[in-house]
Amino acid sequence: MLQPAFQSVLGAKNREEFRSEIVRFAQGLGFETVSATAVFDHSVTESEFDTVDNTPLAWHDYFNDRNVWRVDPVMQHCKRHSVPIVWGQDTYVKRGLGNLWEEQAQFGYRSGVCMALHLPEGRHFLIGVDRSQPLPTNDTVALTRMVADLQLFAVYAQEAAWRVIMPKEQDASTIHARLSPRELECLRWTMDGKTAWEVGGILGITERTAVLHIGNAMRKLDCASKHQAVLKALRLGLIR
């Protein structure tokens, strides 16, 4: 069973509902502010950005300044990696940007966790949570849980983001026609937590063939993982 926050953000019907859900999640995790950005690369040099956040008004323009993003160590990490970054004052000081941290710290941006999902066809999704208090770096279990929760939430949030922030979806009936019955069967069993080896046994096919069907479904749904493919298929009503 999905945790309530994950279910809720997946069901967001518009931009304001999406904002409310990511803010509620962040605050439940112990963070005051949150931002979620959908990025679509039209070409190597041209990208479209759309951000939903609860940034303080006094800091909003600076926060969304793309010139700042080009030097900000957190944003530069997310541009290149999918591994979350846990950041604090040292992250900026080590890169000679202590003054940037001092500026944002006045508005409550003293520490946080940020990550990016780099998806097929030039799509990217960034989500970051921030707070005025230090992170529990001396409590490895607590910090690991925070990062893990954000990673899992990001998978569901990005599904909603492409629907309500920057919708570029294909018609569900068109996608359904492209997926074979076997590919849909594999997704249904994957939804139930079955591995490719288990799916193969259930359907009387080899594990390699099950992997092939799941991979084809991922490609047709424009998803980077089987879990994202299952979520998208659920949302489009292709599986239940």
**Radius of gyration from CA coordinates:** 19 Å
CATH superfamily of the largest domain: Transcription factor LuxR-like, autoinducer-binding domain
**How can the largest sheet be summarized?**
5 strands, antiparallel
CATH topology of the largest domain: Beta-Lactamase
| Apparent shape | elongated
Structural class: alpha+beta
Count of spatially separate domains: 2
Q: How would you write the strand order of the largest sheet?
A: 2-1-5-4-3
The number of strands is 5
Tell me the fraction of residues in β-strands, as a range. Answer: 15-25%
What letter string, H or E per element, gives the SSE order?
HHEEHHHEHHEEHHHHHH
> Can you count the helices?
13
- Tell me the helix content: 40-55%
Average of per-residue pLDDT values? 88
CATH class of the largest domain reads: Alpha Beta
Instruction: List low-pLDDT spans.
Output: none
CATH architecture of the largest domain: 2-Layer Sandwich
Please give the alpha-carbon distance between the first and last residues.
14 Å
